[in-house]
């Protein structure tokens, strides 16, 4: 099967990947621009973790002496919980009304960096068509290999001091996994949206989605290890709505 045919196949997606069914960036250009009314709404809140999260584990980086020296006490980051707050959760909204509009695009590139032999940031979100710049700030070679389902897969290596790799994604897709084939512990997740209504929780587990047209939305939270949660919320013109999420360890999985 050719890569072109593969690109046309839409597999069964999880709730968090519903946005991948939207048309590519070329079709987005034909939509009517969204004109701000000054009565846009806000959804904000926090994402917390109930119970004891698993302890971070030490990562063996001895396969690359440069990495071992640069980051000798590297630990896993799949669940980052501080005082009950959960970092690196992607929170976004789903509403078919949004599919009718083209929202103001950003010309600023987003940056994903190999730094200390890990991806920084671990979790990020960008817009369809936005330039993603991948930097290698280490004194060793790295490899960037995203594995999308709705976009084109690519795989490129980058030596120390090499120019930035610049790429863009044509279709919305939640949580594209990025790997480094040279350093298998390096992982990152990049979500791609056709609208600007998304956020990543900070160290306090907080997020804020601003500028929403009034309406009813499905608010979705996605975490790389703990999965998805969603709730319906209605926001009135000029109003703010609080939506919180609580995660816990799956049944049968022990915390600390």
Secondary structure blueprint with pairings:
Blueprint: H1 3-8, H2 25-28, E1 32-33, E2 41-50, H3 65-70, E3 81-82, E4 85-86, E5 90-94, E6 101-102, E7 110-114, E8 119-120, E9 123-127, E10 132-136, E11 142-147, E12 156-158, E13 165-167, E14 173-179, E15 187-193, E16 198-200, E17 206-212, E18 215-223, E19 227-235, E20 240-242, E21 245-248
Parallel strand pairs: 1-6, 2-20, 2-21, 7-10, 9-15
Antiparallel strand pairs: 2-17, 3-4, 5-16, 5-18, 7-8, 10-13, 11-12, 11-14, 14-15, 18-19
Top CATH class? Mainly Beta
CATH architecture: Sandwich
Order of helices and strands: HHEEHEEEEEEEEEEEEEEEEEEE
Low-confidence stretches: 1-23
Q: Write down the overall mean pLDDT.
A: 88
Describe the structure.
Helices cover 6% and strands 39% of the residues. Strand 18 and strand 19 (227-235) form a beta hairpin. The strands form 6 sheets. It has a 5-stranded mixed sheet with strand order 9-15-14-11-12, with no helix packed on it. Strands 2, 17, 20 and 21 form a 4-stranded mixed sheet that branches. A 4-stranded antiparallel sheet has the order 16-5-18-19, with no helix packed on it. With 256 residues, the protein is mainly beta. It has a single domain (14-248), classed as Sandwich (Immunoglobulin-like). The protein is built from 3 helices and 21 strands. Mean pLDDT is 88; it is low at 1-23.
């Amino acid at each position: 099967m050719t890569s072109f045919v593969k690109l046309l196949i839409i597999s069964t997606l999880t709730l968090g990947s519903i946005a991948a069914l939207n048309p590519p960036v070329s079709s987005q250009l034909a939509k009517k621009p969204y004109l701000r009314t000054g009565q846009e709404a806000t959804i904000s809140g926090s994402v917390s973790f109930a119970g004891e999260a698993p302890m971070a584990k030490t990562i063996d980086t001895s396969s690359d002496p440069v990495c071992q020296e640069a980051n000798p006490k590297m630990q896993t980051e799949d669940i980052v919980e501080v005082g009950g707050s959960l970092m690196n959760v992607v929170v976004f909204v789903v509403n078919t009304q949004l599919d009718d509009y083209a929202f103001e695009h950003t010309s600023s590139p987003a940056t994903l960096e190999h730094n200390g032999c890990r991806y920084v940031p671990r979790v990020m979100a960008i817009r369809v068509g936005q330039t993603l710049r991948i930097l290698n700030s280490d004194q060793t070679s790295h490899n960037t290999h995203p594995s999308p389902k709705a976009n084109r897969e690519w795989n490129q290596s980058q030596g120390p001091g090499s120019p930035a790799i610049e790429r863009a994604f044509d279709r919305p897709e939640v949580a594209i996994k990025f790997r480094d084939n040279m350093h298998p512990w390096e992982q990152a997740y990049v979500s791609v949206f056709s609208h600007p209504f998304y956020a990543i929780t900070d160290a306090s587990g907080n997020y804020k989605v601003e500028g929403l047209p009034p309406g009813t939305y499905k608010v979705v939270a996605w975490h790389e290890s703990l999965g998805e949660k969603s709730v319906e919320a209605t926001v009135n013109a000029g109003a703010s709505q609080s939506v919180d999420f609580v995660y816990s360890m799956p049944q049968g999985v022990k915390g600390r």
